[in-house]
Amino acid sequence: xxxxxxxxxxxxxxxxxxxxxxxxxxxxxxxxxxxxxxxxxxxxxxxxxxxxxxxxxxxxxxxxxxxxxxxxxxxxxxxxxxxxxxxxxxxxxxxxxxxxxxxxxxxxxxxxxxxxxxxxxxxxxxxxxxxxxxxxxxxxxxxxxxxxxxxxxxxxxxxxxxxxxxxxxxxxxxxxxxxxxxxxxxxxxxxxxxxxxxxxxxxxxxxxxxxxxxxxxxxxxxxxxxxxxxxxxxxxxxxxxxxxxxxxxxxxxxxxxxxxxxxxxxxxxxxxxxxxxxxxxxxxxxxxxxxxxxxxxxxxxxxxxxxxxxxxxxxxxxxxxxxxxxxxxxxxxxxxxxxxxxxxxxxxxxxxxxxxxxxxxxxxxxxxxxxxxxxxxxxxxxxxxxxxxxxxxxxxxxxxxxxxxxxxxxxxxxxxxxxxxxxxxxxxxxxxxxxxxxxxxxxxxxxxxxxxxxxxxxxxxxxxxxxxxxxxxxxxxxxxxxxxxxxxxxxxxxxxxxxxxxxxxxxxxxxxxxxxxxxxxxxxxxxxxxxxxxxxxxxxxxxxxxxxxxxxxxxxxxxxxxxxxxxxxxxxxxxxxxxxxxxxxxxxxxxxxxxxxxxxxxxxxxxxxxxxxxxxxxxxxxxxxxxxxxxxxxxxxxxxxxxxxxxxxxxxxxxxxxxxxxxxxxxxxxxxxxxxxxxxxxxxxxxxxxxxxxxxxxxxxxxxxxxxxxxxxxxxxxxxxxxxxxxxxxxxxxx
Length: 735
Prior knowledge:
Blueprint: E1 35-41, E2 51-58, E3 70-72, E4 76-83, E5 87-96, E6 99-100, E7 107-110, E8 116-124, E9 127-130, E10 133-138, E11 143-149, E12 153-160, E13 163-166, E14 170-173, E15 180-188, E16 190-197, E17 201-204, E18 207-212, E19 217-223, E20 227-234, E21 237-238, E22 244-247, E23 254-262, E24 264-271, E25 275-278, E26 281-286, E27 291-297, E28 301-308, E29 311-314, E30 318-321, E31 328-336, E32 349-352, E33 356-360, E34 371-380, E35 393-397, E36 406-416, E37 421-431, E38 445-448, E39 452-454, E40 467-476, E41 491-493, E42 502-512, E43 517-527, E44 541-544, E45 548-550, E46 564-573, E47 588-590, H1 595-598, E48 600-609, E49 614-624, E50 629-642, E51 645-656, E52 666-673, E53 676-684, E54 690-694, E55 698-699, E56 705-714, E57 719-720, E58 729-733
């Protein structure tokens, strides 16, 4: 080339030529063009040119450098459209812009001579093969055939040179070197219809049936005697309770299934307000079958009656119709659930022999239908006669007792108008010399579930002869096992609770050595999330006979719940009173006559939160007496000795507030010897207002101490308060 720069001459060296020939077939004419191809490859230059050009010539031709057969930037290429049976020569040149290098080394390639064969393609049946007929193929070339079935037909086999190659949709002859045949066989497509039936009837024909494409198949559905067609499913879709069905122009698999039902009867159920019946409404029941109905009352309500076919069968929670052969009805009615009454036998009392005692159940409550009946029964102690045991209040006269006194226990049973019952008891201690004990059940406690809880009655006291026994009982809450109910300090394990927690109440009854008794209660709140409420029974008050007294629990509170759900007041000491409403926040009562004799009326308030936890508190009303007060104005002691035996006489003078002597007052004193109990004696004052209380004889040692304490002064129309006396004790040393 005239314009190529010397710097590019001979820069391109072809080191490797890889030559291969490829034949190309044209399916549109089914002829093989007489061309082939060659692949050339060379090494790259030392620097990168703009590209490379390939030039070719035949044996008798020169290179035409204006007509490259390939132009590109890679170091290999394929040259196409080479004639068979021809020798070709190739050179490569690198170029930059319009400048080319000199020729590379020349490469020579001779194409093979041409050869061809025939492949005969045919079909048998409803389908096609492509290409079809006789196809000419150049020797060494490949030829592919496509086999296609017509709608409703399938390929059943393909034969190549008379040998089956199976059900294939394509087949390729590779590097053909001889004549061949290919034949495709087709047949109509068949589909399966599966027919089945449940118990109670049949379908015909049943089982699996093979149907050619485009064919049809009819079915007959027949119920047994006593049944009817419930439904027919075709390919999983309900077509209704038909008795025949036909598949037309079948082009896919199908299924048909028939179901049957027994003739049915109807039971109609309904429920009034505040409850449900299930199932409700019109219920279809198989002939000779059964059906159960469940009746459920809403919270706070109960089933009041159930009617079957208009006839009452009572307040049942379920009913079953068996062997049903006709239509029926069932209806349920509901009413508010009866709430159990709460009996309150009044406070424990301490009285003297020969006195009239009133037992009062007036503070018993029933939150809904009221209390229909009261029943008082004596369950412990010397029998007494109750004046009106079937009334809310009843009286009796206390019996004569010895110096130990006696405990009388009475049980009150209340019954509401729905027949629910509740019981409570009260103790009446009849005393002469012995004073009743004071029970103490310990402080209320708040514990966690699983805690070991100890009840503590050890602070119970008895002023004179000591406590002989303890008896614990659980009065409310989930039942727990108490370790020893006769111990002063039994224990139990707190039960598991929900987040609201629970409250347990325990009562201890203590009995002194003389048989007198007293009771006290304590609360144990078992918590998890909820905390117990705090009860506040209000301040202690002073009142006189006939005064109206307002108890006030309004300062009670609960730290986490929105409100306190219930209040319950109990009288625990003093002459029984009637509260205006024992469940009110602030009930009222009138101080009854005789209350001043006891001096104090004690009330206990129990509050409950929405989770059921409780708190309690006490208050007392001090009743001011209008009667004159008696005082011990003087005690003098004289000793009488005879040998080693010594006895003492205490001369006691009783006066009133004005300083006047009081006659016919019973003075009771308790003698001790060196601090140990000796004897108790009661004497009536004479006309001088004096009473002589004599000790028991004792073999007294020198320097021994004989002492007396005045424990009571009693006279009708008068009162006595030991705490208001300066002189209540006297003492003398034995010389």
